[in-house]
Amino acid sequence: MSDAVAVHGAVEPAETPLTPESWGKLGMWLFLAGDAMSFGGLIVAYGALRYHAAKWPVPAEVLGINLTALMTFLLIVSSVTMVLGLAALQDGDKPRFNKFMGLTILGGAIFLGLQAYEWTHLIGHTLPHYNLAFSKDLFATTFFVLTGFHGMHVTGGVIYNACVLAAVNRGRYQAKHVEIAGLYWHFVDLVWILIFTFVYLL
Amino acid sequence: MSSNAHSHPNYIKIFIILSVLTAIEIGVTFLGLPRKVLVTLLVGLAVWKAALVALHFMHLKLEKTTLTLIAIVPFVLCVFLSLMLLPDVYPR
Asked: Is A163 within the bounds of a domain?
């Protein structure tokens, strides 16, 4: 372990002026800025296509917002458990960190389960009822592209968080690594807040 | 390791604000407001919530200003992108 620390020190010899704690944090922020442009491009395209469309179904009618409201709440909760876990690790309380990090991963996994249920229901029942389908009309296509791209991010986040939890318990990762993983996880939450508004509520 | 004895932001307070804002978002969709008012309200609430997450959960409030500028760039570019698409969208 002390070996790993020595190697780590050699890799990170100087401080970045922007994030003195670690280069990794700056790297994550730059990645997220790029990722935000991917989401931004998709959301703006969605807006332009929708505004241009002659007819657009009422999203709340077709998609329903009860389940999605629950999913939104779930992601917010998992963001809170993530920061509480980070705070616990910064205080050196590993059992408390394990508990909250476990809850964060569980929250993400339940979110994915609910999204799978939602998609199955939409594809099997609701969309055919409205004569809508992926790649057949813009409403369904933009819906699946946006929520699918976000769902893949959640999948990645759950795996990332699980790896971080394991690495902390093996002594390879410290609080600063958890903070970087947290940045990604909160970003995924932040994007869902926007998708919930633009795709479901508006 | 070196930075023990942190004082942590009040995360629970942010959580409660986010939950209340989400409830308000869902509530206003049932009020039958004019479309333009509803869109303005919902976009405003969403941006407010996103800003809360970025400032407090992602600790932007505690970071250097330059990092905040980096974080804002994609949003500015998305506004430009929207403006660039306006001529295509408007004449219908």
From this structure: yes
